[in-house]
Amino acid sequence: MQDKFGMHRKVRWLFLMLLLLPGGGCITGELTAQLSECEQAAHHMAACMGELPPGQVSASCDLDVARQVLSLDCAQLSANTTDIKSDGFSSALADFACGIGLYRYCPIPTCVPDLDEPLHSAPAVAPEGSSQCAIDALAFEGCGACDYYRCREQEDACGPDGYHLGFGYHYCNAFRLIAERHASPEAQGWLSRVRRCLIETLDRDETEGDCNQLKERAFDSHVECYVKTGFCDLPLSDWLLVVNTVKLRDIDLYQLFATSSECLSAG
After folding, report:
1. How far lies 41's CA from each of 72, 73, 241, in Å?
2. 82-121: per-residue pLDDT in tens?
3. What angle do CA 36, 40, 42 make, to 5 degrees?
4. Domain extent listing, the chain
5. Omega into 107 within 30° of 0, i.e. cis?
6. pTM beyond 0.85
7. In the chain, what is the straight-line distance between the N-terminal and C-terminal CA atoms, in Å?
């Protein structure tokens, strides 16, 4: 049973790596005919913009926008997007992309920790030797834990584009408040575990140094935390959900391939 499970894991990872190759997100005409207009538009948009296709696409979407997307070739689709966002999507297309599973384009709602979520049932405390930022944040299960990054920014300021605010705080909230709502129960559990692992690891390893060194140490912890907390065992749809929540400019192919290598070795 373990060998069979490990083989399934390898197949899923190889499929994901194929999707990451140039042109890997394209679909054939035969498959296109089997998809709904929303699904066709989702795959067309993803392929044109050089993105992974969404893992799951709702059968209901704004059909007017979907048909507009399908009526445009890739050059026209790019030309008809207004650069009001760093990712180049117009407001209408960003809303459509969010609705079809490209969650990087979704606006992050505001979370009020003491109203939105319960305290941890277990464990309820941070590891021994944790900073006060971690002790306060890890009492929460969800977005309250994300305040760890704002707390550390007050102590070691790296600015809005630094790791604490530009990456850690942003994606902690994006996964908690957007991706987690669409994830499988297994992925929801993983997101909770990895959120805690990333905070505990960063808190343990955070020492004196400049902002670039901080960012490097933080990114180094991602692969270990992903694998240790069970990312390898998630369905392919959840892998795509995770990748499609990260902005294109923030996707680190080294981390993706390093994680895949660890998963393949573990399988």
Report:
1. 10, 11, 17
2. 544 554 557 777 788 888 788 888 899 888 765 555 544 4
3. 115
4. 22-105, 113-266
5. no
6. no
7. 12
CB 104 within 8 A of CB 87: yes
Q: Which of 75, 78, 28 is nearest to 53 (CA)?
A: 28
- Residues making up the chain, counted from first to last: 267
| pLDDT (tens digit per residue) in 241-254 | 888 898 878 877 66
Separation CA 224–CA 222 (nearest Å): 6
Q: Tokens representing 123?
A: 């464990």
State phi, psi for 9 to the nearest 5 degrees. -65, -45
CB atoms within 10 A of CB 18: 11
Q: Which residues contact 158 (CB under 8 A, 6 or more apart)?
A: 164, 165, 211, 214, 215
Provide the CA 195 distance to its chain's centre, in angstroms. 12
